[in-house]
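Feature request disguised as a bug report, sorry. It would help if multi-protein outputs had a clear separator. Right now it looks like this:
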Amino acid sequence: MKKIKGISKEQVRHLAWLAKIDLSAEEEQILSKQIADVLDYFRVLDKVDTKNIEPAYLVRELRNVFRQDTARKANADEILKLAPTKKGRYVKAPKIV
């Protein structure tokens, strides 16, 4: 199996930009190797014979594992404390064009 040497620094920077994280040059180098290792492992998984295996859409048979939705009184002042920005007694959201 041919081992992947790594991904380029530009690709790592692009992934970091998509994830909205800042990376140092050392972190870019480390991540490049780690991502290459993950991709190498996927190449191993590609070799597994799955011809007679039925696809599993759900690994565990869990259905509707939500909590009961119950109404309760809310305190507006407590809720507004959680808002990152507010204007008066309203939550302020960024303008979307």
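(second protein starts here, but nothing in the output says so)
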Amino acid sequence: MSEIPDTERPVDVLIVDDQAPFRAAARAVIARVAGFTLIAEAESGEEAVALHGDLRPDLVLMDINMGGIDGIEATRRITAVDPATMVVLVSTYRLDELPAGARTSGAKAYVNKDELSPRVLRRLWADGGDPAW
């Protein structure tokens, strides 16, 4: 059984996506969630793993498709070192079309980029991820 995150303390967030427009959209969503603070952005899986090691964010919004280390492998590396980090995979896949390994990567949830919202982030954080995941 995973621990449910403490919803009373600030939540440090890392955005990982190789596309600047999505990083900007994710920044706008995070800015609208009380208690959530963007601490860094990464453009690659390699950069995400390095930043995680330095900053230890509470929540990582992780794109799946990136050059080099993809989001699934970066998630595996991050959660192997720090299982308490909540990684939420974000991409444009339908849930039934997720790549192999997405569900076993250590991520706590998947959100389609079109559905990312303050309400969704608050719910996932409060629930410790997606119970159906």
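Even a blank line would do. Unrelated, but nice: The chain has one domain: 11-127.
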